[in-house]
């Protein structure tokens, strides 16, 4: 029965997140919000909604290992598995502007998270700081895009699938699905971990993290196959920023998070290493792409991570 809860939870998260993105985008278009702003806020939130709802629900239920492990594990999976597989299919181009701003914010978010975990607890105040940093990042990006008028160069035609009332109702139902899915996933994962003698930390870093990263995985792999580079490394980096700042921040505000010693000394260091490895792959700047070979290295590093946490 626990495996049923686990599978149902993952399915609900994927379906609900997908409908949340579509209906929110349709509603935003109705109110004439620029597509680039929709992509930055609504779509980014939608693809990271499974991580947010799972960690927030785990925090509410008092499972700190699941809340933090899901964030760290999802960040590692996004780079090691999602970006690794995508780059292995075809080299992924990188925008220079992303290196200057988004990657810098990514590293700063990782540093803040590490500093806050040093005392083996993330307090509500620290969660609030992470949340404010995320809001400041979004505010800066929106102002930057408006100033440069990037939205005029990246105008997209979004299909009006639903009218505003229907879109709003679907958003409500989707959020309900995310709540139910996250509750089912956390319940199933914790029970499975208890029954087979695996720690909540391990189950959250593996099964839960991959489950909540499935939207990014399927989207990125399909995009790579279709050579649709609008969905590329920028979305993966943005998702990791969202996970580190917003998801952790909200979870800590709901309930202060106790930090497992192994998460700080092993898992967090692996996450930081993946972030640094990504930065190394950005050079030389003249050839801005993640090559197939670098994608293979990400996959190998991800396999090594699994070997270490299970050994």
Overview of the molecule:
With 311 residues, the chain is mainly α. It has a single domain, classed as A middle domain of Talin 1 (Up-down Bundle). 82% of the residues lie in helices and 3% in strands. The protein is built from 11 helices and 4 strands, in the order H-H-H-E-H-E-H-H-H-H-H-E-H-E-H. The protein has a two-stranded antiparallel ribbon with strand order 1-4. The protein has a two-stranded antiparallel sheet with strand order 2-3. About 2% of the residues have low confidence.
What does this entry show, briefly?
This protein has 311 residues and is mainly α. It has a single domain, classed as NCX, central ion-binding region (A middle domain of Talin 1, Up-down Bundle).
Uncertain spans: 154-158
Helix content: over 70%
Which architecture name does CATH use? Answer: Up-down Bundle
DSSP summary, beta strand count: 4
Q: In angstroms, what separates the terminal alpha carbons? A: 28 Å
Q: Helix segment count? A: 11
Order of helices and strands: HHHEHEHHHHHEHEH
Strand line-up across the major sheet: 1-4
Topology of helices and strands:
Blueprint: H1 2-30, H2 35-61, H3 64-89, E1 92-93, H4 96-117, E2 121-122, H5 124-148, H6 150-153, H7 164-196, H8 200-225, H9 233-254, E3 257-258, H10 261-281, E4 289-290, H11 292-310
Antiparallel strand pairs: 1-4, 2-3
Helix pairs in contact: 1-2, 1-7, 1-8, 2-3, 2-5, 2-7, 2-8, 2-9, 3-8, 3-9, 3-10, 3-11, 4-5, 4-9, 4-10, 5-9, 7-8, 10-11
């Amino acid at each position: 029965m626990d495996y049923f809860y686990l599978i149902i939870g993952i399915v609900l998260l994927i379906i609900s997140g997908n409908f949340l993105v579509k209906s929110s985008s349709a509603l935003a278009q109705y109110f004439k919000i620029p597509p680039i702003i929709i992509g930055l806020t609504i779509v980014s939130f939608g693809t990271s909604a499974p991580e947010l709802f799972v960690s927030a629900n785990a925090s509410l239920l008092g499972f700190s290992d699941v809340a933090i492990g899901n964030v760290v594990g999802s960040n590692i999976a996004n780079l090691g598995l999602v970006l690794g597989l995508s780059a292995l299919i075809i080299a992924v181009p990188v925008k220079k502007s992303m290196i200057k701003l988004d990657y810098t914010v990514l590293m700063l978010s990782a540093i803040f998270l590490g500093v806050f975990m040093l005392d083996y607890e993330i307090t509500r105040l620290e969660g609030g700081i992470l949340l404010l940093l995320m809001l400041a990042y979004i505010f800066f990006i929106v102002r930057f895009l408006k100033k440069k008028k990037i939205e005029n160069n990246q105008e997209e035609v979004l299909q009006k699938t639903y009218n505003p009332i229907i879109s709003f109702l679907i958003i409500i139902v989707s959020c309900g699905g995310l709540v139910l899915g996250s509750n089912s996933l956390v319940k199933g994962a914790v029970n499975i971990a208890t029954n087979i003698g695996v720690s909540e930390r391990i189950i959250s870093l593996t099964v839960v993290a991959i489950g909540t990263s499935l939207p990014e995985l399927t989207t990125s792999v399909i995009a790579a196959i279709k050579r649709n580079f609008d969905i590329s490394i920028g979305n993966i980096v943005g998702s990791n920023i969202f996970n580190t700042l917003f998801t952790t921040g909200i979870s800590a505000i709901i309930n202060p998070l106790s930090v497992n010693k192994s998460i700080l000394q092993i898992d967090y260091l692996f996450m930081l290493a993946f972030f640094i490895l990504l930065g190394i792959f950005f050079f030389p700047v003249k050839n801005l792409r993640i090559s197939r070979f670098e994608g293979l290295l990400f996959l190998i590093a991800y396999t090594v991570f699994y070997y270490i946490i299970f050994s």
